[in-house]
Design a protein that fits this description.
With about 500 residues, the chain is an alpha+beta fold. It is about 55% helix and about 15% strand. It is rod-shaped. The chain starts with 6 loop residues before the first helix and ends with a strand. It comes from Candidatus Accumulibacter phosphatis. Its EC number is 2.7.13.3. One of its GO terms (molecular function) is phosphorelay sensor kinase activity. Its main location: membrane.
């Protein structure tokens, strides 16, 4: 496959072709102008030749065979041909037919001469003027002409003297000697001039296109660096071609990225509006209930025995809902920030999981959360202890709130290769299909937000855990549960030993 030529090379080739075409045009026009100038000069120089012959040698005007001195006219014509071998002298009658000439019999192949050119010549038309060549060459020749003096008895012009100035003899000699060396020298000079012009043009093009070449190189490198994976997936070769093609391809790719970014921003804006509406719904419900309980405690409704205690407990529960929701929204907003910085330290994950489970054991009854499975031994992680503790707490709290009943939430820890996996299992109704699909595909749980069937948004705790896992190079996945309910796996990479 032939490599694509650079923009500078293409400009150079175009300049070379234009210079060659221009040189050829100038050469053709120059030769034509030189020929025209030469013939005009010769015709002007010999303009009065025929008239001079007619005036000084009247015997040539005798067209009557009875009066003409054939020998004298023949001698005169021979003398003229000897004096100037390049001319051809013809005697024409009033109709333009050749009556006499010097040369071999049969040399005249076209006896009829076009008199219109002769009349234009005699009338002083602009030179050069070309007329008929009686020798039948098919080429128009420059000439000199004179009309014979009319006699009193003549009703028509008695005839014409017709002199071809660039006859075949002159043409033959001119073809051998004329301007061959001049034209050769001019051709050499023109070639050298074109070559020098081409070199200067190449130098100028390279200087002028150097910034374009550098820009194309940077854009090509950027395209190769940012789009190599996408190109490989589409089976398309990286950006190639000259500088202009590279810039055009980079511009198209930039346009596509801008359009894709605009579409993502519009989608995110829609998701943000949807999330705000869901947050407003989630906050409105507990706030309305809290306000109603506070009004009841203020005495606007009759209070019975122990009613104030029940109203206070309900108000505290709604207040805790508002606190938990606002805290989750704040944490999720902080985790979604692009400049999130982890406070990394080395700690033991097995101890952190044990502490997180014990934190939920606050009563005297059966513990709501239990550790299951054999202890895998010390598992060390390099990460943000507070964020991972928050992720575990959210997962356990979600399991407790969405799977109420006698069966406790089961938490287990295991090691799989270079990763530690924390399993949280409950016996609840399970996660919604949309959340399960997103977890299986590794998609974000917050972009766009998950809508509850009852209104509002859901999955904040799972979204926080998923984001924490992503920041640490891990993942959050839903696994099949043999006991029913929900089984989530928080996978985190172990510290390098």
């Amino acid at each position: 496959m032939i490599a694509a030529r650079s923009f500078t090379t293409r400009l150079t080739l175009a300049l070379a072709l234009l210079l060659v075409a221009y040189g050829a045009l100038v050469g053709v026009l120059g030769r034509h102008v030189a020929t025209e100038h030469e013939q005009e000069s010769l015709q002007r120089l010999s303009h009065g030749l025929a008239r001079h012959i007619v005036e000084h040698w009247p015997e040539i005007t005798l067209t009557d065979p009875d009066q003409a001195d054939r020998a004298a006219r023949a001698e005169l014509l021979s003398m003229l041909m000897v004096v100037n071998p390049g001319i051809q002298v013809y005697v024409l009658d009033a109709d333009g037919r050749v009556q006499a000439y010097i040369g071999e019999p049969g040399m005249v192949r076209q006896e009829q001469v076009d008199l219109q050119a002769v009349r234009d010549f005699l009338a002083g038309a602009a030179l050069p003027l070309r007329g008929t060549d009686p020798m039948g060459s098919g080429m128009a020749r420059i000439f000199s002409a004179a009309m014979f003096p009319p006699r009193s008895t003549d009703t028509r012009p008695p005839g014409y003297l017709y002199v071809i100035l660039d006859g075949q003899a002159r043409e033959k000699v001119a073809g051998q000697l004329s301007l061959r060396r001049v034209w050769q020298g001019a051709g050499v000079v023109a070639a050298v001039g074109l070559l020098v012009t081409l070199l200067l043009g190449v130098f100028a093009f390279r200087r002028l296109t150097l910034p374009l070449h550098r820009l194309a190189g940077r854009m090509r490198e950027y395209s190769l660096r940012t789009l190599h994976a996408a190109d490989a997936q589409r089976g398309r070769s990286p950006t190639s071609g000259d500088e202009v093609s590279a810039i055009a391809a980079a511009f198209d790719e930039m346009t596509q990225r801008i359009e894709a970014q605009t579409a993502r921003e519009q989608q995110q804006a829609g998701a943000h509006r949807e999330m705000m509406a869901g947050v407003a719904h989630d906050l409105r419900t507990p706030l309305t209930a809290l306000h109603g309980h506070l009004e009841a405690m203020a005495g606007k409704t009759p209070a019975g025995p122990g009613r104030c205690d029940r109203l206070l407990a309900a108000a505290l529960a709604q207040s805790d809902k508002v606190r938990r929701l606002s805290q989750q929204l704040f944490e999720l907003a902080a985790l979604q920030s692009t400049d999130q910085v982890l406070h990394c330290e080395r700690f033991r994950l097995d101890e952190l999981v044990t502490d997180a489970v014990q934190k939920f054991d606050l009563g005297d009854g059966p513990p709501p959360v239990t550790l299951h499975g054999a202890a895998p031994g010390p598992l060390e992680l390099d990460g943000d202890l507070q964020l991972i503790e928050r992720a575990l707490s959210n997962l356990i709290d979600n399991a407790m709130r969405h799977a109420p009943g006698a069966a406790p939430v089961r938490v287990s820890l295991r090691q799989s290769g270079g990763r530690a996996e924390v399993l949280i299992e409950d016996a609840g109704p399970g996660l919604p299909e949309e959340l399960l699909d997103r977890l299986e595909q590794g998609r974000s749980l917050r972009d766009p937000p998950v809508r509850r069937s009852s209104g509002g948004i859901g999955g904040l705790g799972l979204a926080i855990a998923q984001r924490v896992a992503s920041l640490h190079g891990g993942s959050l996945q839903a696994l099949a549960s043999p006991h029913g309910g929900t089984r989530l796996c928080l996978a985190l990479p172990l510290a390098a030993q």
